[in-house]
Amino acid sequence: MGNTRILIFALACVASVVKTFSYEPELGSARVVFQTSYGDIEFGFYPTVAPITVDHIFKLVRLGGYNTNHFFRVDKGFVAQVADVPNGRSAPMNEEQKKVAYKTVLGEFSDVKHVRGILSMGRHDDPNSGGSSFSMLLGDAPHLDGKYAVFGKVTKGDETLRKLEEVPTRREGIFVMPTERITILSTYYYDTKMESCEEERTVLKRRLEASFLEVEKQRMKCFP
Predict the structure, then answer these.
(1) Is-contact 32 58, C-beta < 8 A?
(2) pLDDT greater than 50 at residue 68
(3) Rounded to whole angstroms, how far apart are CA atoms 179 and 197?
(4) How far apart, in whole angstroms, are the C-alpha atoms of residue 48 and residue 34?
(5) In this structure, are residues 65 and 101 in contact, taking their beta carbons and an 8 Å threshold?
(6) Spatial distance between the Cα atoms of 89 and 114, rounded to a whole number of angstroms
(7) What is the widest separation between alpha-carbon atoms in the chain?
(8) How far is CA 118 from CA 110, 112, 163, 181, 214, in A?
């Protein structure tokens, strides 16, 4: 009986560990694309994990806030970090962009692990000081788990991240920074659900056209 209890407890522990390491939240349908001189990077959001952060970053994207911004930090195997919008853009902001760019959000910390491709909010010592700077993980960083807010992940463009990792860098204090400016030339976004519906509409249209042609053939055959 005692051995059975020990076995059940051990299995429960293993199951708990597996769940912790395999947990991956569901991505929302929105996708954002950052176009850089090294290629495109597409990412999606985790709205169930960090809804406030997702709303904030996505609003900045929709306002064009990240256009002309840049990656101020590229630490191979660790992070590629996007500069905060107010200080990172080469173009001036309009008033609407300023209202959002200077806001900070609550730290939405979770159990989602910091692994390659994850998007994680930058912040100062204050856990609720996240603004518009965020990192794209270039490797696993378990020391960040639970301390920085994960809000999405890269869905396409890992080859672009690998190109960024090969850019020459210099160290300034704790930061490893590229020696050249890696500019986000432009950004755009789309919804995968709408894209799926468009594909379905196209398929349906083709089927209807094919059906119409078949009906017309039968009509011509039977009612010349």
Answers:
(1) yes
(2) yes
(3) 44
(4) 23
(5) yes
(6) 27
(7) 87
(8) 13, 9, 17, 23, 51
How far is residue 133's CA from residue 74's CA, in Å, rounded to a whole number?
Answer: 13
End-to-end Cα distance, the chain: 86
Q: Which residue has the tokens 């709205």?
A: 47
Tell me the per-residue pLDDT of 148-191, one tens digit each, with 9 for 90 and over: 999 999 999 999 999 999 999 999 999 999 999 999 999 999 99
Length of the chain: 224
For 28-53, give one letter per residue: b (16+ CB within 10 A) or e.
bebbbbbbbebeebbbbbbbebbeeb
Tokens of 150: 């994960």
Contacts of 58 (CB under 8 A, 6+ apart): 30, 32, 45, 189
Q: Residue 125 phi/psi, 5° resolution?
A: -60, -35
- The residue with tokens 């597409």 is 42
The strand pairing partners of 185, in sequence order, are none
In this model, does residue 31 exceed pLDDT 50?
yes
155 close to 43: Cβ distance less than 8 angstroms: yes
SS3 161: helix
